[in-house]
Amino acid sequence: MSRGSRGEHHLLPLNTLTAQYFQQLDPAHLSLPNASTIIHPDVQTVIYDHMFNEATVWPLPPVSYRARVLKTIISRIEEAITDPEEDELNSDLIETWTDLISRPKPSQIQQVQQLTYIKYTAPAATTTTSPVPHTVITNESRGLIYSSGTTGFRTWEASLHLGTYLSTPTGAAHLAGKRVIELGAGTGFVSMYAAKYLQPQFVLATDREGPLIGNMKRCKERNGLGAEFGVGAWEWGTPLVYPTKDDTEGAQEDLAFDVALGADLTYDTDLLPLLFATLHDLFDNYHVKEFILSATLRNQKTFQAFLDACENNLFKAECLPFESSQPEDQTGFFHETGIPIRTYRVTR
């Protein structure tokens, strides 16, 4: 069974698998090739070269995650073997597995607290005109759960939903040629994706937490972004601190935007007064014309409070007719849809 005799169609299922792997989805949810595909030597070679080769692949997931995924892949290959003399298990995969399981294993607490580079891949339908996938690299903790003051170090489902919407022609049209600001940017995923691929004039990612600001600045370099992307500190209810050309920070009187973005900003009703004070500031003083917001509807009563506040503050909230695909049908920006996520356009 020579490698050169295999058609490239055998490699197509690997595109989704590698995108899921670099986003560090639960190994149980990875789209592994079926037995008749994964048994081919060329497929196993691509799996090694594109997912586990430390000499050429970056960023690599943590050792513990790689070991879990590789164990699952090797088990799938072993199950596919029907002729031990003809079917083989790639030696590079075996050697990598042996090496990974021999390394020290961090504790569960260490794994949850560890920040790791995540590479998100845009849905395949948005990159059909380009042979290179549209990817964004963040630095975050995928094991993070909600707790006060730390939620920004993870890209949550609403951000992935918003990124998916913006990856569509309708979504991208909001940003093309526009000046964009994101509120509560967290890991910077949405802002960096927009700046890299959606052709805005400029994108400013803002958050109130100093560690998140520093993290986004480092990820800016990792994503090869330049003057089209900036990071600013904004404590809602106070002046926006804007990065200047010499990378210092300060107020800028002539700063203006066309579009504001946000994801998961409505989960705490106590924050709504500050959020709306900020929206008034954006529309009144920064010339914003529309605010595109995605929200996970964990509590309908809480989100209704946001809609009521829109009406009370003389804003119009329009629910956009967009829903993410079911997880099994997604090809990028993978996220759960069990809890509804909606995207709204807020205007005056």
UniProtKB/TrEMBL annotation:
Transmembrane segments: none
A biological-process GO annotation: methylation
GO CC term, one of those recorded: cytoplasm
Pfam families: Methyltransf_16 (PF10294)
GO MF entry, a single one: S-adenosylmethionine-dependent methyltransferase activity
InterPro entries, per database record: Methyltransf_16 (IPR019410), SAM-dependent_MTases_sf (IPR029063)
Highest rank taxon of the organism: Eukaryota
Record keywords: Methyltransferase, Transferase
Full protein name: Putative methyltransferase-domain-containing protein
Organism the protein comes from: Aspergillus coremiiformis
Taxonomic lineage: Eukaryota, Fungi, Dikarya, Ascomycota, Pezizomycotina
